[in-house]
Amino acid sequence: MPASMLPGLKHANLSPRKLLIDGQWVDALSGKTFKPLNPSTGEPLTDVAEAAAEDIDRAVKAARKALEDGPWPKMTGGERSRLLFKLSELMLAHGDELAELESIDAGKPLAEARNVDIPVAAEVIQYYAGWASKIAGQTLPLRGSSFIYTLREPVGVVGAIVPWNFPLLLATWKVGPALATGCTMVLKPAELTPLTALKLGELALEAGLPPGVLNVVPGEGKVAGAALVDHPGVDKIAFTGSTAVGQEIMRKAASSLKRVTLELGGKSPNVVFADADLEAAARGAVGGIFYNKGEVCAAGSRILVERSVQDELVDKMKGRAAKLTQGDTLDPKTRLGPQASKPQLDKVLSYVAKGKAEGAQLVMGGERNTQAGTGYFVQPTIFANAKNEMTIAQEEIFGPVATVIPFDDVAQAIRDANGTRYGLAAGVWTRDVKKAHQVARAIKAGTVWVNSYNLYDPAAPFGGFKQSGFGRDLGEDALLGYLETKTVWMDIG
Q1: Per residue in 88-113, pLDDT tens?
Q2: What's the whole-number mean pLDDT along residues 163-185?
Q3: Which helix (H) or strand (E) holds 48?
Q4: What is residue 5's predicted lDDT score, i.e. its pLDDT?
């Protein structure tokens, strides 16, 4: 069935897409295109121009020109602020279209995309629009004969590489602070999910961003992404994705000492104590792992539960998970979408097999859900009585697979929570305020939610410890990654 005839598609335009370079929609120099697939059906959606190294070079040169010439470097923070506010307003005005594109491209239930991803992405741009006019240095009273002050200047041309699990939202996590600080950007969306990033570029032009300030160049990570990291005209790489790719980016960036911020993988513990509100904890645990079909870097994939209440918690989780309707993402009844691709489907199922082989107790799911459709659906899956050293407790699955691990006391809970190479996020469920603070302080993670999970706000910094990366997205902290500090000494004696 042609993409334009998809049932339920009312607002999205699925005509072929080009690259956005220097304010113009252009073909790839090679003429190559690729076809992103609808994860609900496995069918192609449209043709998208495929950027290669020569296209990245064009985009970086356009971003460099926009950084150094033209209207962008002459704008005040207030003027940049007005453009970003306009962009956020356009995102909201085109919310129905953006939601449909995100739904069919990334396998998100339409209601989830429309009510969460799109408005929150617009809110991120609004938040940084407010910051654009408030970036300032300091006056330093150090010596009587000198006037000393600091300037905060844009780091330069930013190469942003974003993943396929939250294509638009995570793009705004980079675009917002980069443009607020006066940087220019080359945005490389994941090849699986380029459609909303390209629409964002279209809206940015409509909002009045000068040519070259935001360039959008879809292509393969090993080609277009690698070329962006290697390009000598790029001053900073902002990356969200797997730890393995983040390590490769660090190695490549070292040759030119590019600035790098990395938001990487996770194997986040959701720690449930026996004194917790178990109904709330079960709701938080199910949302923490099955939201966005488990394709969340901060997913609460390890549910550490006090042994005395493990069976009760698992029963409550099973009851809630069983109500998650799977199906085509444009169906308003759908609450759990497909994995983003066939390779991701295969990866998730391979981890389920490892969990069974290593002796974890499969209490729910564990199979491809062919009844949901022809796409890449995995049943919501729960393992119980697992051990923290098992593969399914140590490696990021990035799918709807919960691993429930019992513990006996607070000390063991903390050891197990910290017992992976990751440190992105964590949850703690208890009615004991002292215990909540104790455990939150002891867990090595960038975000710890207490009696909640998967809550975000543009003002709250987000990022990881250990091999979950460094640097922060969101909040004031994110701005620091896009700024250089210059100290000016003036002799006035």
Answers
A1: 999 999 999 999 999 999 999 999 99
A2: 98
A3: strand 48-49
A4: 56
The answer to whether 231 and 60 are in contact (CB under 8 A) is yes
Measured distance CA(178)–CA(263) in Å, rounded: 16
> Distance between CA 400 and CA 382 in Å, rounded?
8
Q: Where along the chain do the CATH 3.40.309.10 domains lie?
A: 269-457
Indicate which residues carry an active-site annotation. Answer: 263, 297
Instruction: Measure the CA–CA gap between 70 and 210, rounded to whole angstroms.
Output: 8
pLDDT digits (tens, 9 = 90+) for 32-88: 999 999 999 999 999 999 999 999 999 999 999 999 998 999 999 999 999 999 999
The conformation of residue 116, written as its DSSP 8-state character, comes to I
Q: How far apart are CA 330 and CA 345, in angstroms?
A: 20
Bridge partners of residue 236, in order along the sequence = 158, 259
Residues of the chain with CATH 3.40.605.10: 3-264+469-487
Closest CA to 219 of 66, 21, 398: 21
Q: How far apart are the first and last CA of the chain?
A: 78
- 374-383 pLDDT per residue, tens: 999 999 999 9
Q: How confident is the model at residue 493 (pLDDT cuts 50, 70, 90)?
A: confident
CATH superfamily of 269-457: Aldehyde Dehydrogenase; Chain A, domain 2 (3.40.309.10)
Cα distances from 30 to residues 26, 33, 55, 222, 224, in angstroms, run 11, 9, 9, 17, 13
Report CA-CA distances (Å) from 423 to 252, 394, 410, 474. 23, 12, 19, 17
Decide: pTM greater than 0.85: yes
One-letter identity of residue 65: K
Amino acid at 363: V
Topology of 3-264+469-487 in CATH?
Answer: Aldehyde Dehydrogenase; Chain A, domain 1 (3.40.605)
Residues 6+ apart with CB under 8 A from 350: none
pLDDT at position 144, please? 78
- Tell me the three state secondary structure of residue 161: strand
What whole-number distance in Å separates Cα of residue 59 and Cα of residue 268? 37
For the chain, the farthest-separated pair of C-alpha atoms sits apart, in whole angstroms, at 81
Q: Tokens 């600080």, residue?
A: 181
Encode 191-219: b = buried (16+ Cβ within 10 Å), e = exposed. bbbbbbbbbbbebbbebebbbbbbbbbbb
Residue with tokens 């993988």: 265
**Rounded CA separation 239/263 (Å):** 6
What percent of the chain has a predicted confidence (pLDDT) above 90?
96
Note the pLDDT tens digit of each residue in 212-245. Answer: 999 999 999 999 999 999 999 999 999 999 999 9
In this predicted model, what pLDDT tens digit does every residue of 435-467 receive, in sequence order?
999 999 999 999 999 999 999 999 999 999 999
d(CA 63, CA 234): 9
Are the C-beta atoms of 118 and 196 separated by less than 8 Å?
Answer: no
What letter represents residue 357's amino acid?
A
